[in-house]
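Entry:
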Amino acid sequence: MKKNLIILPSNFSLMDTRGIDKQKTIALESYNEEERSLIKLSEADLFGATLPEISLKGTSIKSVRLRYTRHCKYITLIRYLTGKIVFQVGEIQRIDILLLFDSLVTLQDLLEKEEDFKRKYGSDLESLALILKSFKLHPRTKILDVKKLGEQIEQKIPNFVLPKRNLSTVWKHVQRMYYYSASTDSGTEIKRIPPKGYIGKGYTDKGTARKPELDGSPSWQEVAQFNAYDPEQSL
């Protein structure tokens, strides 16, 4: 909230100023009290709200599929996400939390392969994994829960978190590192499965395996009878 700064002498008294009376002083104090209460109320509304659902093109989706581009640098992504949780908790989206968990899994695999990377980030990533292990993301997760998560992150790994002054700059690169789409169950719905194709067994079936409703070809007995008897042929 924007505030005006007025420099006053140490012996300044509001009642000594021309044009200011006691009634206006009371009104000014009441306004300040109301302003402070509105700030507290807005913070309570913010932290008490649940994380918004993930939406794609204006449609809310329950399950997402994350994909990363060739520009993705996982360590930059995860440092940005921790910085956003610490310094911009009011802007946190549900997709940010999912990215944080998923990126951490990828980096843990990288720690086992590269010693230099483990030496540089191993301790911080291990601490972050322990913090996230106690955090549960569910449909009723509130922004207050994320705020508490940010407090733990800032306390345990302050040097790993991306500084607040760099968030807006790094976001320009981070937004090109990933994308997501609605996740669908693998396979095909039963009602969309076409009828099972039928192929006759041949002469070994003796005509018993034929299904006229699926296979329009005549049975071998009908073909044999037609070829054996020609009505126009004189006897």
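The longest helix spans residues 22-48.
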